[in-house]
Amino acid sequence: DKVKVQLELKRKQSCPRFHVDNVPYRLLVTYIGPGTQYLSKGHANPMMIPFKSLAQTHIWEDLLGTYRAWIARNISHEEYNKLALLPGSGVEACEPGEIIILKGAAWEQCNGAVHRSPPVKKGELRLVLTMDAA
């Protein structure tokens, strides 16, 4: 098996929308700056981020493609992230130095972990190590 390793210095929010990565798993460590934000299991709105079993149906794939294209053109990142959370849900965040391993969409046994990059304030930096199963 291969692993892709990246160490990046980020000056802005690289992934502002909640999403699931298309990898089997991803390890993330933020050494400097705010840590990765994620939703606890069961807190993501399946209409915005569908369950794997639902997303793999052909009808849903067609509808989802049209729906996501419309969202990309018409909804801000902030509005999208509000819709991605189920009512009463909150956002969790890693502290600098904490290691988080996220299952991705390519993990066969479950739905992937929903997460995003945290907002980065002007003048702030993030040093992030990412390791992906290839």
Written description of the protein model:
Helices cover about 20% and strands about 30% of the residues. It is α+β, with helices and mostly antiparallel strands and about 130 residues long. About 20% of the residues are buried.
Give me a quick take on this structure.
This protein has helices at residues 52-55, 58-74, 77-84, and strands at 3-10, 25-32, 37-39, 91-93, 99-103, 115-116, 126-133.
Summarize this structure as a short list of keywords or feature phrases:
single chain; 134 residues; alpha+beta; 4-stranded antiparallel β-sheet; 3-stranded antiparallel β-sheet; 22% helix; globular
Main β-sheet, spatial strand arrangement: 1-7-2-5
For the terminal residues, how far apart are their CA atoms?
7 Å
Mean pLDDT: 87
Query: Can you write the helix and strand succession as a string?
Result: EEEHHHEEEE
Return Rg in Å. Answer: 15 Å
User: How helix-rich are the residues, as a percent range?
Assistant: 10-25%
Number of helices: 3
Beta-strand percentage?
25-35%
Q: Give the low-pLDDT segments.
A: none
Compute the number of strand runs: 7
Topology of this protein?
Layout: E1 3-10, E2 25-32, E3 37-39, H1 52-55, H2 58-74, H3 77-84, E4 91-93, E5 99-103, E6 115-116, E7 126-133
Antiparallel strand pairs: 1-7, 2-5, 2-7, 3-4, 3-6
